[in-house]
């Protein structure tokens, strides 16, 4: 009788374990429904790849079809337009260059909101004007969808390694749903407040980044002119109070660090055009809020001049090269 009881008990335990595993499996599979992705540029492509690596089916599109090929080879489904993405997915991420691109992708003739399903979660990781994010949120709400802004910091390298920082703005009750996806692509996901606050945080960060990079470039150039070895100068800066991200992680002087744009003729990285665009956003928001940003305004002008002098497609750390060339003017 005891043996029979033990056998029944073991059978029950095995059955219970099987049911629990099946429940966990089905719950896991339910969360891995297709994710839409619009915008497969330098940042969007590695972000979408990380979703695939985490087991999410991806439905993608880009204005340049050739940008989709690598992702398609990894198993993503490629469609013709943002509206086609919206028809097939109820969680969609967008990563686009500017405010006009975002407006077109969401509200244009073939935009997401043309075919968006009620309850769809829309996450925009572009860096745009906070006012545009709020406009898109209103338009999405009219269609029964939820819009959140989640711009990123970290650049192409961090995007490839899933180490981005996401700054999230939107309804707090939707944050957990957004976080589930964003943690597949980033190391830090920070809730900032209502729609537009993610953009506000990103704009502030990039203004400081631009100012810091110009300061680092000026410092490295001056030190070299004074006869200091650039690697030695960088070492001293990075153990002193002048240390910053631009000096210890992304040094603009060639020959100081490996694996950064300054070691590759300023190719790759974060383009000067994009930095000028972000500083323009900072300038606009500062004007609208009557906030003085004298160094931010000067940084904006420097990067705009660089764009007109052949640096538009180079990494923004090429401001070091720009300053060196200005010496001979």
Automatic annotation (TrEMBL):
Main location per the UniProt record: mitochondrion
Cellular compartments per GO CC: mitochondrion
Domain 3-hydroxyisobutyrate dehydrogenase-like NAD-binding: 196-322
GO molecular function: 3-hydroxyisobutyrate dehydrogenase activity; NAD binding; NADP binding
PROSITE patterns assigned to the protein according to its UniProt record, in alphabetical order: 3_HYDROXYISOBUT_DH (PS00895)
Annotated localization: Mitochondrion
SUPFAM superfamilies the record matches: 6-phosphogluconate dehydrogenase C-terminal domain-like, NAD(P)-binding Rossmann-fold domains
Annotated metabolic or biological route of this protein: Amino-acid degradation; L-valine degradation
Stated name of the protein: 3-hydroxyisobutyrate dehydrogenase
Residue span, 6-phosphogluconate dehydrogenase NADP-binding domain: 35-193
NCBIfam families associated with the record: HIBADH
Keyword Mitochondrion: yes
Sorted UniProt keywords: Branched-chain amino acid catabolism, Mitochondrion, NAD, Oxidoreductase, Transit peptide
Domain of life: Eukaryota
The protein's Enzyme Commission number: 1.1.1.31
Catalytic activity: 3-hydroxy-2-methylpropanoate + NAD(+) = 2-methyl-3-oxopropanoate + NADH + H(+)
């Amino acid at each position: 009788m005891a043996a029979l009881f033990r056998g029944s008990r073991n059978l029950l335990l095995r059955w219970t374990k099987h049911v629990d595993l099946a429940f966990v499996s089905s719950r896991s599979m339910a969360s891995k429904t297709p994710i839409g992705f619009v915008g497969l540029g330098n940042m969007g492509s590695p972000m979408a790849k990380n979703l695939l690596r985490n087991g999410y089916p991806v439905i993608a599109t880009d204005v340049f079809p050739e940008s989709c090929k690598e992702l398609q080879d990894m198993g993503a489904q490629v469609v013709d337009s943002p509206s086609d993405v919206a028809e097939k997915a109820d969680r969609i991420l967008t990563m686009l260059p500017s405010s006009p691109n975002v407006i077109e992708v969401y509200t244009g003739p073939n935009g997401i909101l043309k075919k968006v399903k009620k309850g769809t979660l829309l996450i925009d990781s572009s860096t745009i004007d906070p006012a545009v994010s709020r406009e898109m949120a209103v338009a999405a709400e009219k269609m029964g969808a939820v819009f959140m802004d989640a711009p990123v910091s970290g650049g192409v390298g961090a995007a490839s390694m899933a180490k981005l920082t996401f700054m999230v703005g939107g309804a707090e009750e939707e944050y957990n749903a957004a976080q589930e996806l964003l943690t597949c692509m980033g190391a830090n996901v920070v809730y900032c407040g209502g729609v537009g606050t993610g953009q506000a945080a990103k704009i502030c960060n990039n203004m400081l980044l631009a100012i810091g990079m110009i300061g680092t470039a000026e410092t490295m150039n001056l030190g070299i002119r004074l006869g200091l070895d650039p690697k030695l100068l960088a070492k001293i800066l990075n153990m002193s109070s002048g240390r910053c991200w631009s000096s210890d992680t992304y040094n603009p002087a060639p020959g100081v660090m490996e694996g950064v744009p300054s070691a590759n003729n300023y190719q790759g990285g974060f383009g000067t055009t994009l930095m000028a665009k972000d500083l323009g956003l900072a300038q606009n928001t500062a004007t609208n809020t009557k906030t003085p940003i004298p160094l931010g305004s000067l940084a904006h002008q420097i990067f705009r001049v660089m764009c007109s002098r052949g640096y538009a497609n180079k990494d923004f750390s090429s401001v070091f090269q720009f300053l060196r060339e200005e010496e001979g003017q």
